[in-house]
Amino acid sequence: MFIDENKKFDKRNIGRNLRNGVITQKDYEIFLSKLPDTSNKLFNPEETPAELEEMESKKESEILSKKKGLKKKTKAKGK
After folding, report:
1. CA distances (Å), 64 to each of 16, 37, 38, 70, 73, in order?
2. Can you give the residue ranges of every domain in the chain?
3. In whole angstroms, what is the distance from residue 25 CA to residue 76 CA?
């Protein structure tokens, strides 16, 4: 059976690949140890409301600036 190397460690295939001997538990542990740390992207309920408001205001300002950019482009095309 052909095993795609890019999908060997796909989370939907891990259990089957371990049972069928395609990968070993040691291979899987090595793969997990090489993954980047993304813990800073995790929601932290202990953050203060001020920090959350600051993050939300940054998101809103980014959205508004994108909308303004789109409006300017559409006006220029209509002329």
Report:
1. 46, 31, 28, 10, 14
2. 1-35
3. 59
Alpha helical stretches, state H, 1-79? 14-19, 25-34, 49-78
Which tokens go with 50?
């001020």
Residue pair 28/18 in contact (Cβ under 8 Å)? The answer is yes
Residues 30-45 pLDDT 10s:
999 999 998 888 777 7
Ranges of the chain whose pLDDT falls below 50: none
The CB density around residue 18, as the number of other CB atoms within 10 Å, is 14
